[in-house]
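Most newcomers find our protein records easier to grasp once they have seen one. To make this concrete, we reproduce a full record directly below:

===
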Amino acid sequence: MNIKKTLVLFAVLVAGIIYSYTVEYRGKQNKARNEKTENKIFSFDPASIDKISITTDTKTTEIIRSGHDWKITSPVTATGDSDVINQLIRTAADGAITRTVDGDPRDFGLEPPTMRMEFHHGGAVDTLFIGSPSPTGSSIYIRTNKTGRAALINASFGSAIAKNLFQLRDKRLFRGMADEVDKFEITKSAFTLTVEKGKGQWNITSPIKAMADERQTALFLGRLMVVGAIAFPDTIGEKEAGLSPPRLAVAVWIKNAKQEIHFGNESTDQLGIYAKMTSEKQVAELPGVFFNDIPQTADALRDKNVSAGNEADVRKKQPRQPPHHPPWQR
């Protein structure tokens, strides 16, 4: 076989491979992609959603976009958990039905639905109705305002998108990071413990002047700035929660802005403690163990390595001991 014929055969082989890839493989890919797009329940861009309304048989929760964040406006006014809400929107945008079904919507728990969700974007509204689980439990029935037909979708979709008010709320109480705090105060009755940062060092400035223990201070602030509510009881007010007057108050300053929380009574199950940020209206319930770890005396945060004679700015200098070596290494 001469070289010319060999090159021709090689060119034919390469052309066949290219054809197989572009026509058959890519064709299958495009077909699968088109089928997935056709089966998607919505076609909106998650970034375009500016309002969400979630209705159950007991209440309606309304959420609006506020810049890069989310704000709950009903049934309470609260900061939304952006991570949870953004994931909910992505779940709705990516949801794809497995098949449509015929029959009475009432048989599928769709009339009335167990949950109705409205996604507002650019003046348009896409509505999702969530119904009952399928007999096997592997799917749930849904329908949208786009087709009106009942359909089945994977059960994991329902668990990922059906969020209650507590799940949608931001459970954090303080805004900021522990290393951003410049000053904090802990007040109990007439006693106030004041701790301030100066030249990279935490110092107790009231009721005594002393250097603070850096480790204990960092641990306290670390817990304080990340503590989250375990519940938001609707039926308890400030007086019933023991917040008027408060049992204990903690305030922090970040960039000269004050944030303050008040603590009250133990919860009815004695596992939590009622608390409320002064900037918020609703009482929250925090883990009881968190309250027990709050330092309530100057001695609890005082640096024990500082001499009593000049404790405001002098650390006790421990004599440096020469390294110890066993006799056989001397």
User: Anything to note?
Assistant: Residues 46-168 form a domain with the Immunoglobulin-like fold (CATH 2.60.40). Residues 27-36, 311-321, 323-330 have pLDDT under 50 and may be disordered. The CA atoms of residues 213 and 303 lie 4 Å apart.
